[in-house]
Amino acid sequence: MNLIEELRWRGMLQDTMPGTEEQLQKEMTTAYIGFDPTASSLHIGNLATIMLLVHLQRAGHKPVALVGGATGMIGDPSGKSAERNLLSEEVLRDNQNGIKKQLEKFLHFGDAPNAAEVVNNYDWFKEFSFLDFLRNVGKHLTVNYMMKKDSVKKRITAQEGEDGAEGLSFTEFSYQLLQGYDYMHLYKHKNVRLQMGGSDQWGNITSGTELIRRMEGGKAYALTTPLVTKADGSKFGKSESGNVWLDPTMTSPYKFYQFWLNVADDEAENLIKRFTLLTQEEIAALVEEHAQAPHLRVLQKALAKEVTTTVHSAEDYEQAVEASQILFGKGDLETLRGLPESTLLAVFEGVPQIEISKENLANGAQAVDFLSEITQNQIFESKGEAKKMIQNGGVSINRQKVGKPDENITSDLLQGKYLVVQKGKKNYYLVKAV
């Protein structure tokens, strides 16, 4: 597999330094990407660069993931208008451990020659004094050279206060020198010859290749991938509630699946190329099938299946599919019982939620009372209205049709506390008994 050709047809190739393709074809090459540990989980915006490492390893090369325990204490100014909050070493170390576990789902670790490896730049920066760094590293890059980088120029030329922009601190200005030294250290100690990243990292990466040339007289290479954006040019990777995380405790598998299922038609082809390992022929067939019947969302379903299965599991994917059918009137009581509480709450996020006392159900409350008075008349405004819809077969509780107004409500609560009420075809209520 030719890595450059693979990335090119997938739309994953932005810039390469001259000689990069020749280096990759010549021998097994060790390449690295840096990951920011300022959150305890990676998010789907990180998937674009994770997939670079996946394809690199599939092509027979060795991937190294650098977790920036040291640089994460400072913050990269690229693409940002303000300086980030600084985190403690303890928090950063916990975050790094979580990130490594997530990377293990994508990359093969072990004893093979091209087995993946995780490194932490705190390990070589922690004993590096400020004076030693200035004397041994800082002297090799001029301020003029560093000022030409886009990430620096944009922050310096921006007016403070304009669109929330702040001036560039010396801390952030030094970031490219620190990242450049990362590359130099890995070049020297891990035989790394290529750094990859998002297109906004080109300046930082090339600072590293320049530092290697000046300090070691060596030749190193650079490769970037386009930033993933929506069709309107806005940033990809956020839902209405914020980042879509890879950690299931931060974004449930159901919400994760729904995010991919709901991408726009004009984005789906690009995303399925970038975020799955489906072949060119398989994707071409899906694109053609989708074009014949866009309403069936063939591309989105294939994309959601592949990514959810990889990040979570096949079981989580199947459960997400079942859960997604519930609001369309599909699925029975057993389906509801099988949903974890986080998924149940995610499915019914946005529907009216009503809290009642468990005591109201303990003695076998009648359906007509439960649907009106006990639930504070939030489902039906009166017993008469509730009675009429029950008699017309329009009410279900936990997917069980309520047959008679005086029928006793079950105390068999989902997760020991929930009842799902459906009024008509589309109106849902989640009742929590506490």
UniProtKB/TrEMBL annotation:
Places the protein is found: Cytoplasm
Segments carrying motif 'KMSKS' region: 235-239
Presence of the UniProt keyword Lipid metabolism in the record: no
Enzyme Commission number(s) of this protein: 6.1.1.1
Residue intervals of the Tyrosine--tRNA ligase SYY-like C-terminal domain: 347-431
Motif mapping: 'HIGH' region: 37-46
Cellular component terms (Gene Ontology): cytosol
Function: Catalyzes the attachment of tyrosine to tRNA(Tyr) in a two-step reaction: tyrosine is first activated by ATP to form Tyr-AMP and then transferred to the acceptor end of tRNA(Tyr).
Family, per entry: Belongs to the class-I aminoacyl-tRNA synthetase family. TyrS type 1 subfamily.
Name of this protein: Tyrosine--tRNA ligase
Source organism of the structure: Nibribacter ruber
